[in-house]
Amino acid sequence: MFDQSLLTYVILIIAIIALIFGAVLGYSSIKLKVEADPIVDQIDALLPQSQCGQCGYPGCKPYAEAIANGDQITKCVPGGQPLVVKIADLMGVEVPEMDGEPAPEAKVAFIIEDLCIGCTKCIQACPVDAIIGTNKAMHTVIADLCTGCELCVAPCPTDCIEMKPIKMTTQTWNWKFDQNLVIPIVNTTELQPKLVVGNQTGGGNV
User: Which of these CATH numbers, 3.30.70.940, 2.30.30.30, 3.30.70.20, 3.30.499.10, describes 107-165?
Assistant: First the structure.
């Protein structure tokens, strides 16, 4: 039978070793901590977080890291051109041209009611919870939440989900203001009036 004092010493030694290792790990986590790149977090905050992989990366965070390292900012299909403009503004770069190729068409998922069997597989696949429904009951898509990632299409066993283009409305229209289209005015706040046309200021008397 073990001596009680010996068992106490063993437990005490183990506790001391555990405290030492804990202190070393705690010090290492603080001393060797790698600070995250703030630009990556800012880009990631702009991305739709659909985690659809259409950009060629496994998720939005890896794509944000790739953008910070110089990758193209036009690969996010759910975000579309509005997202490209936001990222370009954040990074202080010009909005890239599409090289003659049309911009990806914004689409949303649509469920054909007669074919839906209520299997819930599309609900499980949707990363933004844009599909509602219950088991053995018809499902439907909340268009305002759908990012068009198409992840719900493949799991559907009855092929009842199709992607439809988003109709242009006052909510989906790109209302970005073009400073070059400003109507010419006369700046009378200075001693010498100047003609102001968009971003350009003409010199001389008016």
Answer: 3.30.70.20
